[in-house]
Amino acid sequence: MTHDQIRIFLKVAELGSFTQAGETLFLTQPAISLQVKTLEQDLGVSLFERKGRQVLLTEAGVRLVPHARRIMEEISDARARVAELSSGPLGNLRIGSSTTIGTAILPPILFRFTRQYPQIRTSLSILNTHRIVFDLKTSEIDIGFIEGDLTRTESQGVSRSFLAQDRLVLLDSLKTPLIRKEETSLEEIRHLPLILREPGSGTRQVLEDALLDRGLPLDLFTIALTVGHTGVIKELVGMGAGIAFMSVLAINQSDREKIRMVRVRDFSPVRDLWIVTPGRRMSSGARHFLDSVREWTDRKE
After folding, report:
1. Where in the sequence is the domain holding 189, given as residue range(s)?
2. pLDDT > 90: percent of the chain
3. What confidence tier does 168 reach under pLDDT thresholds 50, 70, 90?
4. Mean pLDDT throughout 125-129?
5. C-alpha–C-alpha distance, residues 4 and 62, integer Å
6. How confident is the model over 142-164, as a mean pLDDT?
7. The CATH number of the domain where 182 resides is what?
8. Is residue 104 part of a domain?
9. How close are the terminal C-alpha atoms of the chain, in Å?
10. DSSP characters for 219-281?
11. What is the mean pLDDT of residues 274-292?
């Protein structure tokens, strides 16, 4: 059982596909299959079964997942401890963040951090909430920033702390508006083309929950597009392709030249933004970055 085999096993388990796992890990599908087959031969059990195009975990695979995650955590922790002994806070810091936090909050923090700790090789990946939690548990990232709530399963093995509060607003095109008034209602926009973030994103989860609280599931609305990038959604709204709910933090001054915010009567979803850290001991780089984030929140208060 090798580190690569465990890493590949967990990625296939997450994505339910050998092909997608290969694309994510920059490996060919045959290479992924060979590593999984070798691991299965080593353990003497089948870890996956195919049902159509989907790859599902067997009972043995389900039992292996938590052990595999702990092994990855131990490897990551061991590497961090050795790096600290040899060179202080040297090493890699891998951050996973949802779109809004990664584009609206983290840039100034990253700027100050990289100037203060130039010896730490820092990377930022923009991911959705579910992917961030998975990567945190499998030691693919060291610290995460999310917009959505966690399921009971996701919350196991991670710690969550408050970062900031955010609000969703409705956006429409400035030049070719679909809504002519300054204020509208949920009932009035039900038949307008709505552009959504992808399932698993914090923004979509908050919107769905807020609509359900008013007895309006998303399938009562006219879904025009599902897009996994905030910047693309803003461009589409500006062109008049549809309306969209988005974090007020994600709207900058240049956006206001092509999109406008429209008040929705009795509907202004508020959400909390969170920092998620692993249950294992954090690396030195992650602890230093968390200190930088806390300094930012203290200045905002």
Report:
1. 167-270
2. 56
3. very high
4. 89
5. 18
6. 87
7. 3.40.190.10
8. no
9. 49
10. GGSEEEEE-S-HHHHHHHHHHTS-BEEEEGGG--GGGGGTEEEEEETT---EEEEEEEEESSP
11. 87
Is residue 85's pLDDT more than 80? Answer: no
The domain that holds 27 is classified in CATH as 1.10.10.10
Q: Does 23 have pLDDT greater than 90? A: no
Cα distance between residue 94 and residue 142, in whole Å: 5
DSSP state of 218: G
Q: Give dist(CA 207, CA 268) in Å, integer.
A: 10
* 232 falls within a domain: yes
Tokens of 241: 């392709």
- Which of these three, 45, 68, 91, is where a domain ends? 68
Out of 68, 84, 108, a domain closes at 68
195 found inside a domain? yes
Instruction: For residues 85 and 293, give the distance between their C-alpha atoms in angstroms, rounded to a whole number.
Output: 25
Q: Which residues, 6 or more positions from 144, have their beta carbon under 8 angstroms from its beta carbon? A: 95, 96, 97, 132, 133, 135, 136, 275, 276, 277
Task: Please say if the pLDDT value at position 47 is more than 90.
Answer: yes
Q: How many domains does the chain have?
A: 2
Q: Report if residue 151 sits inside a domain.
A: no
